[in-house]
Amino acid sequence: xxxEQSDTESGSLLHQRHKNPNPLDRTRExxxxxxxxxxxxxxxRIVRACGCSGVAKIFCIGRGRVIEKIARDGTSQVQIxxxxxxxxxxxxxxxxxxxxxxxxxxxxxxxLYTYAFQRRTALIVGNERKGISEAVLSIVDDVVExxxxxxxxxxxxxxxxxxxxxEYCRQFPQG
Length: 175
Fold this sequence. Notes:
Elements: H1 7-10, E1 30-34, H2 40-53, E2 57-61, H3 68-71, H4 74-77, E3 79-83, H5 86-95, E4 99-103, E5 110-111, E6 121-125, H6 134-137, E7 142-145, H7 157-171
Parallel strand pairs: 1-2, 1-6, 2-3, 4-6, 4-7, 5-7
Helix pairs in contact: 2-7
């Protein structure tokens, strides 16, 4: 009788849902600043992406509400602060040592794929329709965009946020 091999010894694929999170060596210093969102679904998806990525701070401008059924455990992992206006918040974040980076298609934007994030970054995400205002674009340190290779011409705000968060985490995998 031949001995039975375990799935891992035989090289078989094991489906593992809901694995424990990978531990970080340090707290992530990425903060998200969400402009007034039209959709609470988008805000909730951003909260979920932050929770999965170990991003602990989101600043929401306006009255956005997080839908817990969409954000899932992200609501327990992410500190969400609401602010009435964005410009004073950005001044405070800059004074606290954050590099202000807008996520927007603009004439001055760099490709997200070649951009080197600083560890202490505030990533600003604009409104789904209007994007980031000219007033905000005039004070950010950098603007990055995600190249688009087809239609529509841009990603959804929550999708773009998740892509940018992923790129930041790829550059700082241990926090």
